């Protein structure tokens, strides 16, 4: 029973961290537009990036936020494992797709022409 109370408090605290991070981020966005005439754009962008970093750090303090950033890290690891095709392989694949598309469209056009001729012959046109 004690673990349920602790888990409920941890969930409430995690939700509070997420709400706080959203409030920080929305405040940063509002500040970006509020100071539009007072500060030059690079300063506002740098401040917005800093606020987004702070909001991300606050979000990682919650269980769900930490799980989300762990997911992003694992997705980046998997992205690095991908073997991208060389330029020559990409061009050859694109040309093959174009050729097959043309052949299939010619085949379908031929079937359409034959069925149209058959229908015209049956209807006496």
Domain module tally? 2
Largest sheet: none
Determine the N-to-C terminus distance.
Answer: 85 Å
- Share of helical residues: over 70%
Could you characterize the architecture of this molecule?
With 125 residues, this protein is mostly helical. It has 2 domains: 1-82; 85-125. It is built from 4 helices and no strands. It has helices at residues 2-34, 41-60, 63-81, 87-123. Helix 1 runs antiparallel to helix 2 (41-60). The longest helix is centred in the C-terminal third of the chain and has 37 residues, at 87-123. The protein is elongated, with a radius of gyration of 30 Å. The model has no long low-confidence stretch (mean pLDDT 88).
Topology diagram in text:
Elements: H1 2-34, H2 41-60, H3 63-81, H4 87-123
Helix pairs in contact: 1-2
């Amino acid at each position: 029973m004690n673990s349920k109370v602790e888990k409920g408090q941890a969930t409430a605290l995690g939700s509070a961290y997420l709400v706080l991070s959203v409030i920080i981020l929305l405040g940063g966005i509002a500040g970006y537009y509020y100071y539009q005439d007072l500060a030059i754009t690079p300063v506002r962008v740098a401040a917005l990036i800093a606020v987004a970093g702070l909001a991300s750090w606050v979000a990682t303090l919650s269980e769900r936020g930490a799980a989300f950033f762990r997911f992003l890290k694992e997705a980046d690891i998997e992205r690095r494992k991908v073997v991208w095709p060389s330029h020559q392989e990409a061009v050859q694949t694109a040309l093959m797709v174009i050729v097959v598309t043309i052949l299939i469209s010619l085949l379908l056009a031929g079937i359409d022409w034959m069925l149209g001729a058959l229908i015209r012959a049956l209807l006496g046109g």
